[in-house]
Design a protein that fits this description.
The complex is a heterodimer of chains A (about 800) and B (about 350). A ten-stranded mixed sheet of chain A has the order 13-14-15-12-11-16-17-31-25-24, with helices on both faces. In chain A, strands 8-7-6-9-10-18 form a six-stranded mixed sheet, with helices on both faces. Chain A is globular. Helix content of chain A is about 40%, strand content about 20%. Chain A has about 800 residues and is an alpha/beta fold. Chain A contains 28 helices and 31 strands. In chain A, helix 25 runs parallel beside helix 26. In chain B, helix 2 packs across helix 12, helix 3 packs antiparallel against helix 14 and helix 4 packs parallel to helix 6. Chain B has an eight-stranded parallel barrel with strand order 1-2-3-4-5-6-7-8, surrounded by eight helices. Chain B is built from 14 helices and eight strands. Chain B has a single domain, classed as TIM Barrel (Alpha-Beta Barrel). By secondary structure, chain B is α/β, with parallel strands linked by helices. Classes of the chains: A alpha/beta (about 800), B alpha/beta (about 350). The interface between A and B is large, with 39 and 39 residues.
């Protein structure tokens, strides 16, 4: 035993362990062996198998967790399905009471949950006690509020049904809260699978929730490894899959769910930049780095793992950082005097070791503190690698460990360029004392969350989620609620496969008078210019009677490639003033109106519609353009108010290049209804118009040309729908894809989107009525056309 | 802590006192570098976040907690700065300064031979003779507040004379307060000149410069004033007089300590830190000690470089130490008054 006198002189820290007694008592009450929590009670897994849950700090077994197989997952989904109508029928206030009870429950048992989490995951008790568990409670409180307000504030929106959720091991209970709270608030029921390394707090939560009166079947918990997750993802009777985890698994899930008509949100990996400008408070930035990459052992999807330093302060910052690293303490996660706990599992530790070794072999300079890590258990020291270039593996690959790489830049532009030089886009941190600089840089970063002079801040009121291959969908705030709702009318829509209502047919087309008209050969529309199809082929467009109405270019792969390049080159459109975008859309409407007769006649000729019906479609199209001219400067972001001295600016940003496949019905109106919201919000588009009736799109070139639409903002490639869609949906420079048409195309697009994990919006074979303003325009379209960036701005001088 | 310090002290010092055991070269100061002062950047929110997590990241229990409490006592300037101070009051304080913790408790902790005493006794000029007398042979230096304390707005030549008088009276440490007007008017040169003059007036006595951080309000002001005082030759920079609306806080401490570190890195000179005012509970001291330990080299936990300025803190520390010894919660009347 160290004496008081010795400590008085050494002034060392000593052990300060949190008692794990109550957590171990809870484990003992279950004989350290758990079933699945389905339909409000514990059930044995169908497989009869259990696996060990290990304390990574000691390597000792904490308990045995059930492996759910197909029958168990099916039972859970059935229970959720049975419970869903009743849960939704409870109404907003009824659900709010339950969510409020869950929040209170978490607070009542906060220390037990915190201790168990620390034991199971290896994260410091300081973090579970002060961060994870309070955020869990806050998430349920906040979403109790959304449940309460849903009926009045989100009218016309309906729950999706049964939601399958698969969560990671890095914030086990917090990720449960992020998933479960909005799902339940919206009126869905849940089948959730915690990560196999860290199932215990979820099991405790489910047990407590049942005690707190949550109805059976509303929250079902199935434990197991990846195969259990795959069963949930693939299950026929799941309406939505929400996943947080690696981009690799996210990609598998995207493929597995393609064409199943499931909603999907993915919160995936990251390699987030932490940018320090030369006018930053460097000492504070050093603490920011500590919170960015040594929080939760760096096992954080949004960890600031790429340190970008302005050249003139790089040396000073690295020196400060190395001094700070020496003062970090690593050890027993339950010790209240440590900064860094244990890596979750040996396999993860080996991965971190291997990646660092690779980094060093590629020429990086390694710095680790002089002190030694505990020899027992899964520990890895805080690590800083300098001499790393963007081309290095460690600058591109997510390590998911306490490993930071440092790079330098010269100017703000270069900082942005390096920061965005990644497939990911989850988060970013910007350090500068200049509000001009910080607020200039933040919108230019490809990231769903930007923290100014701060990092790793989370709150239930603020949306969280990624750009690019970091996934899509948001968690938290109104953005997060929308991920668990859809317009109520969607379920009732007819299908493209259903027999279509008989079109309003006109009589036989009038015969031409005398002279043949001057030949107009529609080409493709790329970069604001008409362009001959690369292949040099045309395809016939036939009227309802089979007669040739015209010919359009047969676009091919290279045309799609060129169109995407033109669209990407035109992305400056995003920074055009919203007023400008609005004016241009009104101008398009004006010029369409001027040619209304021509367009109506074309519709009659192509589709055989009556002149009255064709006139109606043209007028509806003019009105639609007006709608998006109106929306262009009104689809504004929000300011969230997390409980701290801070504003979080939720900006609606365009996604980038949007690929669009149009249906055959209402060929003019659907064509405009699809590109106009995307263009109104600042995206550029590549449109594949109706295969059968493409001429109203090709006629549109001249309308666009005369309306000041900048070249490349709208690109149109005619041709064979499926072939073009195949190339465009797979293109890695396309950031989002909207598909409307017969059902097989939905699957095609979802499947092909995995290359760059582009965001997709497909109709799953459902046929909207484009003339109905609720179905054919408005907020729903605008929401799909943007991604929300949450910029955290702490203030105070 | 040695026993052989500062023996044989008269009321008027004829020879410089022996250097403290952990002797270090005093901060000689440096020319005023305005670009450094103006270049200071402090992000308040980030500082507050860091300060808030220091006590939650660091916890000491059992023997460690007891030892840290003893350390807090050893670093305390036991202080009385009230308008109604009398020699009798000061004698009582000095008696507590010599024996801040009951001997039976020290023995029970195995530190009976530690010669535990506070770092200094801090009084007004008038009380210096009483304090010197009462502390005779203890090795505890007397600190006096001077230079127009607490406003610092009397004529400069009088403030300088005050310092000289207190030094002549035997104070080994002089706590002065800066003229805040110089800061608000941006007259850094005047602030520098004044502090430099006080330092000269101190001679061998150590100079603690009080920033009155509650008045300065902005953390950036506090950082800049810290730098100017260090450049002018302060031996310590100190948060508060105890008379401002807001006293020492962890965010303010963090900013001042970072400036001390920056000064150390750039000049190699060590300047001490004193947190004063509002620190009444033992538990509070742990946050400050952890901050010093994590932000600065180890010697900044010695009284030569770190002080608490407090009047009632020692009583609470003693109470908590009794709890450590007996396992029972204690009561304040079980410990001798300061």
């Amino acid at each position: 035993m160290t004496s008081v006198a010795e400590i008085f002189h050494s002034m060392d820290y000593g052990p300060a362990p949190e008692s794990d007694g109550p957590a171990r008592q809870w484990l003992a009450r279950h004989d350290a062996k758990f079933g699945l929590f389905i339909d409000g009670r514990w059930q044995d897994p169908d497989t009869g198998k259990h696996f060990d849950s290990i304390d990574p700090a000691t390597g000792k077994v904490l308990g045995r967790v059930a492996q759910a197989g197909e029958a168990s997952v099916d039972a859970a989904v059935k229970a959720a399905r049975r419970a869903q109508p009743g849960w939704a029928a409870l109404g907003g206030h009824g659900r709010a009471r339950h969510l409020y009870a869950l929040a209170r429950m978490v607070q009542r048992h906060s220390r037990l949950l915190a201790t168990l989490e620390s034991l199971d995951n290896g994260k410091p008790i300081r973090e579970t006690r002060d961060i994870d568990i309070p955020l869990v409670a806050r998430h349920f409180y906040h979403h109790a509020g959304w449940a309460q307000l849903m009926d009045t504030e989100l009218p016309g929106m309906a729950p999706l049904g049964v939601v399958g959720q698969v969560i990671p091991w890095n914030f086990p209970l917090l990720m449960l809260a992020w998933k479960v709270a909005p799902a339940l608030a919206a009126g869905n029921t849940v089948v959730l699978k915690p990560a196999e390394f860290t199932s215990l707090t979820a099991l405790l939560f489910a047990e407590l929730a049942a005690q707190a009166g949550l109805p059976p079947g509303v929250l079902n918990l199935v434990t197991g490894d990846g195969s259990t997750g795959a069963l949930i993802v693939a299950h026929d009777d799941i309406d939505k899959v929400a996943f947080t985890g690696s981009t690799e698994v996210g990609r598998i899930i995207r493929k597995a769910t393609a064409g199943q008509g499931k909603h999907l949100t993915l919160e995936l990996g990251g390699k987030s930049p932490f940018i320090v400008f030369n006018d930053a408070d460097l000492d504070s930035a050093v603490e920011g780095v500590v919170d960015a990459i040594w929080f939760n052992q760096g096992q954080v999807c949004c960890a600031g793992s790429r340190l970008l330093l302005q050249e003139d302060i790089a040396e000073a910052m690295i020196a400060k950082l190395e001094v700070r690293m020496e003062a970090l303490r690593i050890g027993n996660p339950l010790d209240k005097c440590i900064d860094i706990g244990a890596i979750v599992a040996p396999v993860q530790l080996r991965r971190v070791e291997a990646l660092v070794a690779q980094g060093v072999s590629e020429g990086a300079t390694l710095f680790q503190p002089s002190w030694a890590c505990p020899k027992e258990g899964c520990f890895y020291p805080p690590t800083l690698l300098t001499n790393v270039q963007p081309a290095a593996t460690l600058a591109q690959e997510e390590v998911f460990g306490p490993v930071l790489v440092a790079m330098t830049f010269r100017t703000p532009d270069e900082a942005v360029e390096i920061a965005n030089n990644t497939r990911y886009g989850l988060a970013a941190s910007v350090w500068s004392e200049s509000i001009n600089l910080a607020l200039d840089v933040a919108p230019r970063l490809c990231a769903g969350v930007v923290w100014i002079n701060s990092t790793n801040m989370f709150d239930a009121a603020c949306g969280f989620g990624g750009y690019r291959e970091s996934g899509f969908g948001r968690e938290g705030g109104i953005e997060g609620m929308m991920a668990y709702l859809e317009p109520a009318f969607v379920h009732g829509l007819p299908r493209y496969e259903d027999p279509a209502p008989p079109p309003e047919r006109a009589g036989p087309a009038a015969v031409g008078e005398g002279l043949p008209s001057i030949d107009r050969t529609p080409k493709l529309y790329v970069g604001g210019k008409q362009k001959r199809p690369d292949g040099g082929y045309s395809r016939p467009v036939l009227g309802p009677d089979g007669a040739l109405v015209g010919e359009v270019g047969e676009g091919n792969r290279k045309d799609v490639r060129d169109a995407v390049e033109a669209a990407a080159a035109a992305l400056g459109w995003a920074s055009a003033a919203t007023h400008t975008r609005a004016q241009i859309l009104y101008y398009v409407a004006e010029n369409l109106e001027a040619r209304a007769d021509e367009f109506a006649r074309r519709l009659v000729a192509m589709t055989g519609a009556s002149r009255a019906a064709a006139d109606r479609e043209v007028q509806a199209t003019v009105s639609r353009l007006f709608s998006y001219g109106a929306w262009a400067d009104k689809f504004e972001g929000r300011v969230h108010s997390p409980p701290m001295r801070n504003v979080t600016i939720a900006m609606n940003e365009p996604i980038g290049v949007v690929g669009i496949t149009c249906p055959d019905d209402a060929p003019l109106l659907s064509f405009v209804s699809l590109w106009a919201p995307a263009v109104a919000t600042g995206n550029t588009v590549v449109v594949i118009p109706s295969e059968r009736y493409p001429l109203c799109a090709t006629d549109f070139y001249q309308v666009l040309d005369t309306s000041d639409v900048p070249g490349g903002v709208i690109n149109i490639v005619t041709g064979e729908r499926e072939g073009l869609t195949r190339v465009l949906a797979a293109h890695d420079r396309v950031d989002a894809y909207w598909y409307v048409g017969p059902k097989p195309g939905s699957k095609l697009v979802e499947t092909l989107s995995v290359g760059n994990m582009k965001r997709t919006w497909v109709n799953n074979g459902r046929r909207r009525d484009w003339f109905d303003r609720q179905q054919g325009e408005g907020r729903e379209f605008m929401r799909h056309a943007v991604q929300v960036k949450n910029i955290w701005v702490p203030y105070g001088e | 802590m040695g026993k052989d310090k500062k023996k044989d002290k008269g009321h008027v010092r004829a020879v410089p006192p022996p250097a403290p055991q952990d002797a270090h070269e005093r901060n000689p100061g440096m020319p005023l570098q305005l670009d450094w002062v103006r270049d200071v950047r402090i992000n308040r929110s980030a500082v507050e976040r860091r300060a808030a997590t220091i006590p939650t990241r660091r916890s000491v229990k059992k023997e460690w907690q007891a030892a840290w409490y003893l350390r807090a006592i050893a670093c305390t300037d036991l202080t009385t700065l009230a308008g109604d101070d009398t020699p009798g009051r000061v004698r009582r304080l000095c008696a507590k300064a010599r024996r801040p913790v009951r001997q039976d408790l020290l023995d029970a902790m195995g530190v009976g031979d530690l010669d535990l005493r506070v770092a200094a006794v801090c009084v007004y000029h008038e009380m210096i003779p009483t304090a010197l007398d009462a502390l005779e042979g203890s090795g505890i230096p007397v600190a006096a507040v001077a230079a127009g304390f607490p406003a610092g707005l009397s004529p400069l030549h009088e403030r300088i004379k005050e310092v000289e008088a207190s030094v002549a009276a035997g104070a080994e440490e002089i706590d002065i307060v800066i003229n805040r007007a110089h800061l608000f008017t941006g007259n850094w040169q005047a602030m520098y000149d004044e502090v430099k003059a006080f330092r000269q007036a101190c001679g061998d006595a150590h100079l603690k410069t009080i920033l009155a951080t509650g008045d300065l309000q902005l953390l950036r002001n506090i950082a800049r004033a810290s730098l100017v005082c260090m450049m002018a030759g302060a031996d310590f920079i100190k948060t508060s007089t105890g008379k401002e609306a807001v006293n020492a806080t962890l965010p303010v401490t963090l900013v001042m300590v970072r400036m001390i570190r920056a000064y150390l890195e750039r000049t190699g000179h060590r300047v001490g830190f004193k947190a004063a005012g509002g620190i009444r509970s033992a538990k509070q001291t742990l946050g400050y000690l952890a901050l010093m330990k994590d932000e600065l080299p180890r010697d900044y936990l010695e009284p030569e470089l770190f002080r608490f300025g407090a009047s009632t803190l020692v009583s609470d520390l003693e109470r908590q130490l009794e709890h450590f010894v007996t396992g029972r919660y204690s009561a304040e009347f079980r410990h001798p008054l300061a």
